[in-house]
Design goal:
By secondary structure, the protein is α/β, with parallel strands linked by helices. It has 4 helices and 8 strands; from the N terminus they run βαββββαβββαα. It folds into 2 domains: about 120 residues, Roll (2,3-Dihydroxybiphenyl 1,2-Dioxygenase, domain 1), CATH 3.10.180; about 45 residues. The longest helix is centred in the last third of the chain and has 15 residues. This is VOC family protein.
Amino acid sequence: MQKLQVQGVHHITLTGADRQTSIDFWQGTLGMPFVFEQPNLDTPGENHLYFDPGDGRLITVFTHEARKPDPSPTPRGAGNLHHLAFNVSAATFAQAVERLAARGITHSGVRDRGFMDSIYFRDPLGLLIELACYRFEPPAGFSHADVLREAHLIRVARNAHAIAPPHLADAIERLVARRHGAGAEDDTAN
């Protein structure tokens, strides 16, 4: 049986409260340009707002003026969304704690994830948001996923608990060697 091969995230749609709450958070706090809005074509009375998270894809929000923000954490059962993570530059990440605090937004502080750093906080509707900043740049012609896949193989071979900076450095070295046609005999990353 053949797969339905996806080629990336097209968009993510969330159920929001009123229009202004969504604009204030997605554009005002996270800096996502407000692209356009139109009616929700499936539910009369709802509006559909579109935001650009920075990569040309879309985050969209269904809004209704009768819905009020509820900051209670969203459900954490099977099938529920745990959190949304957004990539930020190192320069932005370095200012995130200060900028969230200036807006009165409670956050987790910086969390070390081995291959990235993270900060978590909740949106006005209780959805957990993560700002993530990779600790590496992939070599030309490769993606972050390529480096992480290779780092994972190295981590497993070394019986390490989680991906750490040495695994990333060795993964990048392997990928660069592979790009330049180096054979397996030149691969000393294990």
